Amino acid sequence: MFNKVDIAEAVRGRENLTIYGETKIGLVRSLNEDAFAISEARDIMLVADGMGGYVGGEIASKTVVEAVLYYFNNYTYASTRQLEKAIQYANSCILSKIAIEPSLQGMGTTLSLLTLSEGNAFWGHVGDSRIYLFRDGDLTQITPDHTFVQELLDQGRITQAEAADHPDRHVLTRAVGVDQELEVAVGAFPVRENDRLLLCSDGLTSSLSEEIIVEALSDYRRSEKEIIRRLFDLVYEAGAKDNVTAILATL
Questions:
Q1: What residue stretches are annotated with the PPM-type phosphatase domain (predicted)?
Q2: Please, what CATH class does the domain formed by 19-250 belong to?
């Protein structure tokens, strides 16, 4: 497991699957509240972006990563229902920590979780971190954004251009560890050779356009590590106002 670390080196695991993950603190943050993990078998990967002020966000993201991996040590990860249960278990773990230490009240985290099994990808998601599928030159956002601004967009009350600069664009409508009852978005899709799967915190997507991400992912001559390093360089050039975390897997 890689959790609260700076680098997880690229590895070759299941058949021809290669993965690289990394997290970096932003230029205006004193703590990195992001966390990520890649399972030993390279078939479970997740990204979390904590919130809650001093140390709270860091504890929340670390807790959710550890809880999900612990859950999958005991249960299958090859069904959307099990991913939903894993995230709800992680939700209860964070709430239990808050009950023990009330000063942590208000902490929570996003979570984007993806598992691979027999040619299929299963995903579970809460918040505004994202999972993307890159296939044949096209980038598809798999996960919905659970944000106030996305609700405004869905209702047709603002435009995409207005959403980009909206003052409440980072306000979440749901997060892990906030409420007893947590609604988890889940789904599944088939994967095939040369697909690329990108999991990332909003530190990446709030700084870079999809066009820039597509350009980077289109270069199959570069390794996953080289691509993520390039994207992170661009985030820093843009000011890196948030922590940034990403996992890139190529099948």
A1: 18-251
A2: alpha beta
